[in-house]
Each structure stands twice: as structure tokens, then as C-alpha cells.
Design a protein that fits this description.
Rossmann fold; seven-stranded parallel β-sheet; two-stranded parallel sheet
């Protein structure tokens, strides 16, 4: 296990899993820089700034704002050990119905915001030759077969792919990278106030409409995942000498990941001959 007290930078910390994570980190004696769109939301959740807690009001889609947040963290705590890119939101709507603005904004928050954080944090991790980057994706970033959720799925697939490439880049620096794939977690993530729904709807897509109704009317408030336990799992993964690159969270996530692996293997087996026939014959 790694040393106990570390310096964490957590985005999207005022609610949901991010809030639970910061609470447990502070309870365990870690130093935490936490970001939200408003500092008031952070002080309401965790109290005033202290030797262990730095609330940061940050616009994660603004390069200068992110740079200032990282710089302030390093200046306040003397370094940075663990980055958790947690902020994000779900966009619902069929590919045909989504506007360019809806799609791009979803990627701005779910994908490009973590990229900005990494751009400014990696120099510090590289200089100290240590650190851990944890990107919170979703099981839909591994098993994406959900009608009406293409924007969200694609943004989380992109974040997962980025993490895999990042892990290969930073390994020689002594830095680890982990992508977390939670199943449904019981937070306000799917509430009508948090979930973005495409302004335009197309009646032909009955499966997408049924999926939206399921998430709003049935799944919300009944998700299997416990956000407290997920937060503790993230802390556990960051505490070991050899953390996982892929971290699935919850029984549903494990089952869906296994089903995806099985489906891919089935297609590989069925098309192996035709696939390998596309190579040059030496």
C-alpha cells in the first residue's frame, strides 16, 4: 500500500460521487483540492477552506480557469498526487435529433475538460516522477449498446481510449492511469434537472424514447450502485502499488463488461477467416 496522506485534485466535487469521494478523502486525512462551478456549493458541502481542503471555483471548459486551479493546488499544498476527472453529464437524444451544439457541449465537459486538466497537471506529475490519474467514465464507455445515448456513450468511450493511451505514455514516468467504469449509481445524475435531453425528438425512434422513460421513471432513485462504496473503491485503487488500468464498479458493470467481451469474441471467431484474408499474401 502507498503512503497514507496524499494530495488529491477532484473535479465535479459538489455533488454525487465526487462529493462522496471528497468527504471520505478528508475523513482519511488527505489534502484535497475540489472543483465546482461555484465555490459556494463546495463550502456548503465541506465547510470553509482549511489546511486539508481547498475549494476551487473553476470552469473546466476554460483553459485559463483550469490552469489557475492546478497552479493554486500546487502552490497551496506543495504538489499534486492524484487527479480525478469526475465532472460530467448525460446527454440523451438520438444521433439524428442531436444538434451540433448539444453534441459538442457534451464532449466539451465529458472529454475535453479532462484533457485540459491533464494538460496542466501532467507537467507536475512528470517532474516528480509519480502520480495517479483516475478518469471516471461509465460502463456505457465500454458497452455502448443503448439507444438514444450515443453522445454520452461516445464521450465516455473517448475518455476510456484516452486513458489507455495515456497509461502507455506515462508509465515510464512512474505515473499510473485508471479508467473507472461504474454501473448505475444512486445519485441525482439521472434526475430531470441533471439530465440533458435533446431539444428535438423524432417519433420514429421508439427504442430511444423507451430508454429515456426507463431511466427517468424507473431507474432513477433505484440504481444498484452505492456512491459511498464507489468512492471507497476509487481510494482503494489509488492506494495500491499496481493499480488497475480498467476498474469496473458494481455487479451490473461486471456483467455488462463480460457480455461485451463475449460478443466481441463471437464476432472475431465468426469472421476470422475473412478478416485475415485481407492481408497481403507473402
Amino acid at each position: 500500500m502507498k503512503s497514507t496522506s496524499r494530495i488529491w485534485f477532484v473535479t465535479g466535487a459538489s455533488k454525487g460521487v465526487g462529493q462522496k469521494l471528497v468527504k471520505h478523502l478528508l475523513d482519511q486525512g488527505h489534502r484535497v483540492a475540489a472543483t465546482s462551478r461555484t465555490a459556494t456549493a463546495l463550502t456548503k458541502a465541506f465547510g470553509q477552506p482549511s489546511d486539508n481542503f481547498l475549494p476551487l471555483e473553476a470552469d473546466l471548459t476554460n483553459d485559463r480557469s483550469v490552469e489557475q486551479a492546478i497552479t493554486q493546488t500546487v502552490q497551496t499544498f506543495g504538489g499534486i498526487d492524484v487527479i480525478v476527472n469526475n465532472a460530467g453529464y448525460a446527454q440523451q437524444g438520438t444521433i439524428e435529433a442531436l444538434s451540433d451544439q448539444e453534441l459538442r457541449q457534451n464532449f466539451e465537459v465529458n472529454f475535453f475538460a479532462p484533457v485540459l486538466v491533464l494538460r496542466h497537471a501532467l507537467a507536475h506529475l512528470r517532474a516528480q516522477r509519480s502520480g495517479h490519474i483516475i478518469n471516471i467514465a461509465s460502463i456505457v464507455g465500454y458497452q455502448g449498446g443503448y439507444a438514444g445515448w450515443g453522445s454520452y456513450v461516445a464521450s465516455k468511450f473517448a475518455l476510456a481510449g484516452l486513458t489507455e493511451s495515456l497509461a502507455a505514455e506515462v508509465a515510464e514516468l512512474g505515473v499510473h492511469a485508471t479508467v473507472v467504469y461504474p454501473g448505475p449509481v444512486r445519485t441525482d445524475f439521472l434526475s430531470s434537472g441533471a439530465l440533458a435531453v435533446a431539444k428535438r425528438q423524432i417519433d420514429d425512434y421508439a427504442e430511444a424514447k423507451a430508454s429515456l422513460d426507463l431511466h427517468l421513471d424507473t431507474l432513477h432513485g433505484h440504481q444498484a450502485g452505492d456512491p459511498d462504496k464507489l468512492a471507497l473503491l476509487i481510494i482503494q485503487a489509488a492506494s495500491v502499488e499496481a493499480p488497475p488500468l480498467h476498474l469496473f464498479a458494481g455487479k451490473i458493470a461486471n456483467e455488462l463488461a463480460a457480455a461485451k467481451s463475449s460478443a466481441v469474441q463471437k464476432d472475431l471467431n465468426a469472421w476470422k477467416g475473412s478478416s485475415e484474408a485481407t492481408d497481403f499474401v507473402d
